Each structure stands twice: as C-alpha cells, then as structure tokens.
Amino acid sequence: MAKDSTSGRMKAVIKASPGPGLELATVDVPILGPGEILIRVAAASICGTDLHIYRWDPWSAEHIRPPLIIGHEVCGEVVEVGRDVTTVKEGDFVSVESHIICGKCVYCRTGRGHICPNTKIIGIDRNGAFAEYLAIPAENAWINPPDMPVEVAVLQENFGNAVHTAFAVDLRAKKVLITGCGPVGLMTILVAKAIGARAVYATDVVPYRLHLALKMGADLVVNADSQDVVEVIREATEGEGVDVLLEMSGAPKAIVQGFTLLKAGGEAALLGLSSGPIPFDMNEFVIFKGIHIYGIIGRRIWETWYQMRGLIRSGLDPSQVITHRFPLEEFEKAFETMASGQSGKIVLYPRGRTE
Amino acid sequence: MAKDSTSGRMKAVIKASPGPGLELATVDVPILGPGEILIRVAAASICGTDLHIYRWDPWSAEHIRPPLIIGHEVCGEVVEVGRDVTTVKEGDFVSVESHIICGKCVYCRTGRGHICPNTKIIGIDRNGAFAEYLAIPAENAWINPPDMPVEVAVLQENFGNAVHTAFAVDLRAKKVLITGCGPVGLMTILVAKAIGARAVYATDVVPYRLHLALKMGADLVVNADSQDVVEVIREATEGEGVDVLLEMSGAPKAIVQGFTLLKAGGEAALLGLSSGPIPFDMNEFVIFKGIHIYGIIGRRIWETWYQMRGLIRSGLDPSQVITHRFPLEEFEKAFETMASGQSGKIVLYPRGRTE
Amino acid sequence: MAKDSTSGRMKAVIKASPGPGLELATVDVPILGPGEILIRVAAASICGTDLHIYRWDPWSAEHIRPPLIIGHEVCGEVVEVGRDVTTVKEGDFVSVESHIICGKCVYCRTGRGHICPNTKIIGIDRNGAFAEYLAIPAENAWINPPDMPVEVAVLQENFGNAVHTAFAVDLRAKKVLITGCGPVGLMTILVAKAIGARAVYATDVVPYRLHLALKMGADLVVNADSQDVVEVIREATEGEGVDVLLEMSGAPKAIVQGFTLLKAGGEAALLGLSSGPIPFDMNEFVIFKGIHIYGIIGRRIWETWYQMRGLIRSGLDPSQVITHRFPLEEFEKAFETMASGQSGKIVLYPRGRTE
Amino acid sequence: MAKDSTSGRMKAVIKASPGPGLELATVDVPILGPGEILIRVAAASICGTDLHIYRWDPWSAEHIRPPLIIGHEVCGEVVEVGRDVTTVKEGDFVSVESHIICGKCVYCRTGRGHICPNTKIIGIDRNGAFAEYLAIPAENAWINPPDMPVEVAVLQENFGNAVHTAFAVDLRAKKVLITGCGPVGLMTILVAKAIGARAVYATDVVPYRLHLALKMGADLVVNADSQDVVEVIREATEGEGVDVLLEMSGAPKAIVQGFTLLKAGGEAALLGLSSGPIPFDMNEFVIFKGIHIYGIIGRRIWETWYQMRGLIRSGLDPSQVITHRFPLEEFEKAFETMASGQSGKIVLYPRGRTE
C-alpha cells in the first residue's frame, strides 16, 4: 500500500451526532471494497450543503445519519485500488464526481445518470472528503492531467454545476442575467463570458460577492437589497430585458425578478434551491412569453466533465473564485467565514497547501 | 363586388356596451383597407375567450372596447380583396390566423411571430367573425383546398393550439398526460395518438368531456373531482408516472398533479391559463427531476399551419370534437350550452349549414 | 443448470473455414464467464450481414475468423447466469443487443455507446445466435415481458435500426421518402406511419418487396428499375419533393434520387451502406438547400430499446415483415430464399416453432 | 432629396458585356421604387463571387446579364426613401442583406428565408454596390448604430456567413477544424474563439492566409500543400481528431481531410462550394461514425444579423480580416490583389476613406 500512514488512522471532520456543529476526530482510514479506490486528499472545498449540515437545518436532520465524515468537493492522489478496479491506478491524480449512480435504471441506461433516482452522494449518504483519505467507487473518479493545479482540480465538482447550467441554454451573443453570486454563480459568469455571451448582468445581496462578480467579468452587477433590479437591468438593456436567466440563488424575489426581466422567447435554467413552494405566475412568466425552463441538477455524467476539460484547456480558470484557504484543522474558521457571506470559494487542506 | 348583399348591411353578434351579454345587431359590412380582404363567413366556432367576453370577466373589462363584433375562429370564401392584395384572390376558401402580427419586431423578423408583442387579435382588438362578413389583413388568410370540409376549416385556428402544444415536445413512444379536456385538450389527444404516443391519459372534472376524451382515443380518463388522479395514473403506469405533461386547464390542482406525475427528465408544455399566480415547488417539480417546461401561446406563424395541413392530409379529423351547431341567431343558446360544460366544440352558422 | 441438454452439445450453423457457405455442426454448449448469461435460443432471424458472411464477400474475408457460429438477431430464455450477474435471472425472456460496447470510452461515458470504437459484435467478433444456445454478457440482455410474441422479440435488434433511423429526424406531418424496402426499410414504413408522417413514398427494385411496402402502409411505391423515381415522386408531391429522406439501400442511384427529391431545409438519415465512395454533389444536394444529414449506426443503447418498447406497446407490430420461417437445419433454404430477394424477414427456429 | 449630387449621375464598376473584366463607368443614379431606399455607399467589400464574375467563369456566364453593376457587401447612409417605406429613414446608417427574398413561400413564412427558392441577389440579379449609390428594397436594410465603424458595417454580410456556419453547430469546449482561410474562414476563427472552442485548427494552401489565421487566434495552422494535414492534426489532438469540421474551401481534398479527422459523433457544417460532384465515402465519413452534416447558405434572415450584433457588441471585431483598401477607381488593382491570394478582405471606397 502506498499510503503514507502506517497507523491506519486519519484526521477527519465529522458530524458526530444529530445537532449543530462539526468536530475534528481521528478515525480509521477507510477499508476498500473490491471496486473502490482510496484517495489521499490534496484539497477539499466547502459547498453550501456542507454549511446546511453544519447548521443542522431541517433538510440535514432528515437526510444525514451521524456519525458521518462530510465533504464532497475534492481531489487527490490515488494511493490504493480495490481488487476489481481496472480504470484507475495508483498515482493517478483524480477529481471526484460526488454522485454515485446505479448504472441500471432507465436514466443511467440512456445517458441521463444525473437524474438517477438511486443516486447516493459522497459526504451525505456515505463518508466524505473532509479527511486525510477518502474511499470512493472507481467509477466516480475523473483522472486529471498530472500537472493540473490542485485548486482547479478540487473545484471541478462544483464548477460542473456552473457548466451544466450554462450549457443547458444558448448563451451565444445573448444578454444573460445571473441571479446569485455564490461560488457557482461566480463560475457561471466565467463560463458565460467564455462561450460568447453578449453581456452578463449579475445580482446578489452581498457587496463582497458583487465585487467578485465584477472581477469574474460581469458587465454589470446589481445589489438586490439596495437597488431596483428590474429597473436597473431594464435600463441597461434599453428596455428589452434579457435573453437568458441563470438562476443560482433560490431566492423567491430573485426568481420573480429574473422571470420579469426575461424577454419573450427567452430561456431560463434553474439551479438554486428555494426553501419551499413559491408563488409563481405561469401566465405572465412562462405562457404569454413562450419561455423555456430547464431544471438543472448535478452534472451530466460524464458529458459535463468533458466540457469542463475543454473549457479549462481553452484557458478558463475556475480557481479565480477561491478567496480563502484553511488547514483542515481550522474548519471552524472556514465555516464561520462562509457563513458570513464575505467569501467566494473556501478550500480546506488536510495536509498543508502544497503549491 | 362579389358580395351577395346589395344592401351593405349584415347580421353580427356584438358586445354593444360594457357588461355581461351579447346581442344580435345589423351593422355595416366592413369597408376594406388596401391590404385587406373580405370573407363571407361560412362558419365560426366559439372559443373560451368568447365566453369570457360574454360574461364580462375582469380580463374582458380591461381588454374589450365596445361596440365590438367578437369571434375569431372562422372560415369562409373571399368575396373582395383590397387594392394592394396579391396573395389571396376572390373565391379562395380561407381559414384565418387570428393574431395580426407587426412583421417588424425582432420576433417577427426571426420566425417567432407568435410572441410578437405588438399582436392585435381579431374579435378582441378589432371586429371579429360572428357575423356574415369579416375583414382581415390578407396576410392573415390561410388558403385551404376548395374541398376541405367547412367544419375542419373553421377549427384550424383552435386546432393550431393543440398542434403547437403537442409538437413542442417529443411524444413518440411516450406516456402522455393531458390535463383538461376542453376542445383543445380533446384535439391534443387526437394529435398525440397520431404522432405515436405510447399512451394518453386525460383528466377533467366534467364526465361529458371525459367521455369525449375516450372517443378521441385516450387510453385512460380520470375524473379529477371524484378520483385520485395521482394514484390512478401512477397505478396505470406501474408506479412510473408520465414522460410528458400537456397542461390545457390552467387549474392549479391539475398543474400540481401533472408535475407530481411527471418523471425525471420529463417535458411539460403549458397552454392553459390560470386565474393568477399559483404556489409552485420549483425544487420538486423542476430542478430535482431535471424537467423542461415550454410555455405555449397561439400558433407558430406559419409553421403550425403547415403542420396542421400535413396532419389533416394524413387523415386526422379535428372536426370530431364538434358536438353542437347553431345558426348565428341562436348564439344565446350556443353560449349557454358552452357555459354548461356539456359540450365539445360549438359552431355558429351565419347563413345556415351548407354541408 | 436449467439447460435441457445433459449432453453439453448443441446444433449450430457455423462458418467452418474461410470461403463461401455455412454448415450445420454439433458443437459444445458455451461455457459462461462470470458476467455472462446462457440463452436457450427461441428464434433467430437472418440479417443482410449474415448473407454477406455466407457468400464470403471481401468484407467478410477481412472481418470473420472461422470457425464461428454466426447470427445476431435473437431471443430466448435465460437458462444460466454467471457468478457476477445481478441484472438478469434464469427464466427471463430476453432479446439481445448485438453490440458489446466497452463502457469506458468517451462515447460510452456520454450516452453514445452506439458509436463506441471498441464495439464487438455477436456473431461477427464472437460466437453468435444460429444455435441452440448463446452466451452473451449480461449487459447485452434486454428483458421482455414474458408474454411478448417470439416473433416480435426476435426482431427487436433489427427493428432498432428502423427506429433509430426514423427517430433521428422529425417525421411529424412530413412527406417521407424511404429508399430500400428490405426488412429494415419495411419496418421503417411502419414506424413512419405510426409517428405521424403525412405520406410515405418507398422505392426498391424488387416487386415482391414493393408489394410488402404497400402492405406496411406506404402511400406510394415506385420501382426504381422500371419507373422514373424522381418524376413519379415529384408528381405525387405536386412538384415539391419530400421533407425527409430515410436511406436504407446504400445504392448510389437511390442516394442521388433521394437527395434530388429532398426539399430545401430537408433532413436525411442514412443507414444503408454503399460498396464504396460515391460521386456526391455537396453544392446541390446539401449546401444550396441547407440540408441536414444524419449518419445512423446500430441502435442508441438503450434509448432506442425503450422507444421500441413504447411503440410496440402502442400497438405497432414489427413481425408483420416476417415472410418465411425455417427450422435451423434448413438454413440453406433460408439463405437461398433471402438471396433471391423474394422475401421480407426470415426467421430460423433451432427447436421448432412454438407458437 | 438629400443626395449630394445634383447631376443624377454616378461612378460605378460594371460588367458592360459578356466576357472577362470590369470597367469604371458613369451611369444614372438609380430611381427608387415605392418600397426602396437609396444608399450613399460608404464602403463595399469584394466577395469571391465578384472575382468569379470578373473572370467570367461558367457560372457567371450562366447567371449574369450585362450590363450590371456588381458588388453586394456594402454599407452607407440612407439618402432617400421610397413612398411606402416606413421602417428606414433618411440618415440611417445601414448594412445590406444581399438576398432579396419573396416573403410568400413556405420557407419565408416559417422563418427560413435563407433557403427561399425565389431569392434575388443584389449585384447578381440586379444592380449592386460597387458604385456611389445603391437602391435596395427597404426590407433588406439593417440599421446600424450611428457610431459603428464603417469597416465593421461593410463586412456584416460576409461576416454573417461565418456566424451562420459557426452557430449551426455546438463549438463550446470543442476541438474545431476550419478548412479554408479566406475572409469567411478567418472570421469563423474569430467567432469560434469567441464562443468557447477549446482549440481551433485551420488549413489553407496560402502561407499569407495561414499567417492571418494565426493572427485571428487559430491555435494551429497547417499548410495543406506542404504538410500532411491528417497526420499533423491527429498528432495535435493526441490521435483523437476533431469534434467539429467547418468547411470553408470547397476543395475536395480538404473535404476528405476534414471528414477523415472528424471524430465519431462529430458535426460538420459545410459552406465552401466545390466545382462539381466529389467522390465521397458515406460509410466511413458519415454512417459508421454517426456524423451530422449541415449545409449552410447565406445568413438566417434576420436571426444571424441579431447574433452578429451581439457578438460585435461583446467585443468581437470582424474588421481585423481587412488587409487592403482601395478607392473605387482602383478596382483593377483590388481584383488583382485578391486574385493573387495575398490578401484577407479587400474594401473599396467610392468616395474616399472617411475614418
């Protein structure tokens, strides 16, 4: 075994029991099944879902069964492979598709595994990535070029949400509104600019994030708390509105603003999750304008990954959205920073930052 | 002039003044503009919108400026053409596209005139078809083969809604739910069966209409008042649900049932108008399942008309949905019948039924 | 083991050595690998490729390594499953996808296994179906309802070519030309009519097949040997030509006729293989008319199979194209019949016809 | 009249009689029809078609009826409008769609005017743009922002070919081969890079043009005369080949190279015209690989123009392909330069270069 630990023990951030908070623990390095691989985690980034679990919101209480190592955005080196593994080998530098799909249902058999109803998620349904080592099915590994920067590799799972959303519609030469400038929204700005959007308008309620949005290339940012989004963007578009809405916030207000601004014949791709049903005017927002709406979940497996590879090789650098880095041990500080809203993407390093 | 009236006067059903009701009046035969044509009305059918105007609901009070001849589903013979008309000639047997589009906006210039924001509608924004004669812009005439049955020709405007909706999605070999069995819903059943749907499930609250739905070829009909729609259709689909939702009712309950039954990866085309915003669960209904939604308005001009022509020539007969016929003078009885819900499509004949 | 043979030996039609002809032999029943299943063959049908192998044409000489059991269109009962098989069980009534794909290349990983460059074909690259028993990877089994007629089940591999081709374009309300009325062409007529084609025109050079084409529902058949195809179909379409070309013959003359008749904006799906490069006028046939062309190979795995299931359940019966049935032992007579051109589909029964 | 000429006469480059060559003449300023506008030409660029007419090749001999003012890529100020014109006014700065379409056929009525069979082309079927003034139907004017550079405005007709081709396929994150680096090929490189191609490979036989291709952003250029195109690009793509072929040359050799390099599942958009039928291997190039081919002609009217507007406003500058500028009087020098192959786009100025 190429593992650098003879002890068979490792550090991990776990939800030890139901309720708010997380803790640093020492646990066993995972034992591999025949089709699994062991990854020495180089870096792991924090997702909004991790924050929900940290806070133990109702969704977490329903879905999480402690004790559990959380975290699902990750890259690292393969240090051991199970008996039956043929597609990955020791030494490969991999990123991880966090959705473990069944491979047998109608969706998996027709190239639509991203909507497989039997999906299990790493860090939610089984132990995750905020640890020194991570075991996953070999099928969930995406082999990177050895020289890919760790901070690009770690982001791919999350970057894939941005690419999946932006590629679901036609952005070429179009005016695009992105509502919500969390890390996925920010990366979507990068993608939209890279694939030929005419103009990108971005909204959020946090000035820190709007500032990042400008840095990513947004042509105009609007603070939904202090400005009249509809008014400002209507003016910026000479009264026309936008051709495309990419909804990344889940905020009912943003959804209404987005559909209000959407031109007849427009397209909307929705990724952001709301906290429940919202009042929605199908007549005005969808039917009279002949709008098309696309629900977006996860990444197309593996189409989105190939698209990411192409974008990254063409020069797009998603790691621009990273604003903070912490050793794994300082996870509390990391979560607090994230909760403050004063951040882009935050990366945890279980064994120090190596580049 | 080939008109058979030397008097220059004609019968018409008009909204004489704001408020409920309609009346039969004698009015001037329309004078043609240089680009217009005069149609001797062979038949005109009643749309749900006409019933709204009859009842003078809030929408009507806002949009209708009496006095107005209403009615917009119509066919007849061209008896006079304006000075500049080159595309239609006296004697042509025409149906009418009721949407007068501007031809100059970005939508009209890119083959999407059905969402032209400058649309004027015959029988709503200008005098309509419940009369002996009707004047329309020549561009709005669709020339039929001379031997097309009047009861097919008169239905095309409305049939176009069904075709536009059904053709917006892929129904081939799919399980399809049609919510709402008014005339458009009924014609959509015909279309879905003709273009290869695996099974068509139809819902409504009126037994009379459900009976018609079966006659049109629905594989299963469900009474949304007395049966548990979700339960019944889940069972009929072995727990799977449906691949496609075609929403024709606008009823919030039907919309929820439809999206509940829609399988992951499914498509929904929405034509039915609700009375206002509805509570809608974007997470469960759209995002988690990766659903695509298409808002449908009017007919694609003229793509839908060519598609109708093809369907009709392949043997589909939309006139099967006609259940009642009245002379124009008996319009009151026609509207009462329609209001009762105990009808499919109702046709008015201003000069007697000629076939 | 549920096999009904204690001897471990079986009848099979084999290509014993390079050169024309086939022979009936007694060979060992296949031994299963851990991921394989053993099928007791209920019926197997003859493909054009089998005839090429029988005749030992240049393609066969290059691709076939005798001794080999040929045949790849097949259905039967699963009588044994390998150690690792979880998706199929003894007693299942299965049809067979003849293309064994690698599951690891970019195409397989993005829902496009039908163009996997590592494809191995049953009956070509490994032993096939003209035998009492057939071993295949479990992944290649498609489980049928137990009550599906054998003559429907056996045709699905081949029917899938028809469905893949017809579903690659939009046939709804369109005028469709099908060039080539072999079994796939004939089944494509069935599909085109089932999914709403306005009219289907079919060409071939064999009157027997044109007669079958009419029986399948073609609106007009044209003998390319004795009639002027372009002239006849132009007249039938009032000078317009056709909206869609489905090319099933590979005959250069048919390809030229098809593209000549194709209207501007038309779509062509090509399945028939030519014997080599052909002279082709890109300007007139593709560019000036803005034509779209789709190359079709195999079946989309498994999308096409789900589509077939839907079509069959909606009432389409592909077994109408079967014209001849023989016991396996009379394979010589079967191949002669097929070579004569006086046949539709021909089915071989290794253990007698059971229904 | 706002024309600056009281004489009613103007300079023009005309094909005076059948045969090679062109000449500078003084002719009458065009008289407007009621739906026409008069443009004071600011600049006009030379198309490959103009060179064919200059040389009087067989196509020209068949299509051109002298005397004729040629030229169809043009921009300028509107100085007079016909009686019935409502969409354009004096002073507007316009570019010109060179295809005059009928507006009445099935293609024009369904948003596909670019394949209207009744198309008349400015500078081919009626007097064109190499002159001080040009009369066109008002419908063919595209109104530019007043501050658009003349050298962007003049190129739009030709740029539209590039945009139409590049937008016909999905280039996002893809490896793209562009065969032919004339002005349209060069502008297509610009577009492909702007809309997210992963890599652009370009071929030509003229080093001058390959040098321009690099300047436009091509990642790799290959000289098809002196290098093995297939070998070089296979190596550059690690043996894979390309995802997309954009064929701009019409050269049979380039077409074969392009389809050889195209990956399974790839897309090819063809714009370049060959001199006649070419030998084409449908099996290897289209069917076995499941390739999609799109024939491209002209510009989508007006969809392509709106897309151009978006691209230009997002920062793309097509005028980078201009390498030479001449006063109209020096048209001979301009055509000689173009014939030499040592040029990108060449622009003629009938009244001096004003910026």
How would you characterize this protein structure?
Four copies of one chain form a homotetramer. Chain A has 355 residues and is an alpha/beta fold. Chain A has two domains: 179 residues, Quinone Oxidoreductase, Chain A, domain 1; 134 residues, NAD(P)-binding Rossmann-like Domain (Rossmann fold). Chain A contains eleven helices and 19 strands. In chain A, strands 3, 5, 6, 9, 10, 18 and 19 form a seven-stranded mixed beta sheet that branches. A six-stranded parallel beta sheet of chain A has the order 13-12-11-14-15-17, with helices on both faces. A three-stranded antiparallel beta sheet of chain A has the order 2-1-4, with no helix packed on it. In chain A, helix 8 links the parallel strand 14 and strand 15. In chain A, helix 4 packs across helix 5. The radius of gyration of chain A is 20 Å and the shape is globular. Chains in contact: A-B, A-C, A-D, B-C, B-D, C-D. At the A-B interface, strand 15, strand 16, helix 9 and strand 17 of A face strand 15, strand 16, helix 9 and strand 17 of B.
What's this, in brief?
The structure is a homotetramer of 355-residue chains. The first copy, chain A, has eleven helices and 19 strands. Chain A has 355 residues and is α/β, with parallel strands linked by helices.
Give descriptors for this structure:
Quinone Oxidoreductase, Chain A, domain 1; 355 residues; homotetramer; 6-stranded parallel sheet; Rossmann fold; 19 strands; alpha/beta
Give average pLDDT of chain A, whole number.
96
Assign a percent range to the helix content of chain A. 25-40%
The CATH H-level superfamily of the largest domain in chain A is Medium-chain alcohol dehydrogenases, catalytic domain
Number of domains of chain A: 2
Rounded to an integer, what's the Rg of chain A over CA atoms?
20 Å
In N-to-C order, the SSE pattern of chain A is EEEHHEEEEEEEHHEHEHEHEHEEHEHEHE
- SS-based class of chain A: alpha/beta
Largest β-sheet summary of chain A: 7 strands, mixed
Shape of chain A: globular
Q: How many angstroms separate the termini of chain A?
A: 25 Å
Count of DSSP H/I helices of chain A: 11
CATH architecture of the largest domain in chain A: Alpha-Beta Complex
Give unreliable regions of chain A as ranges.
none
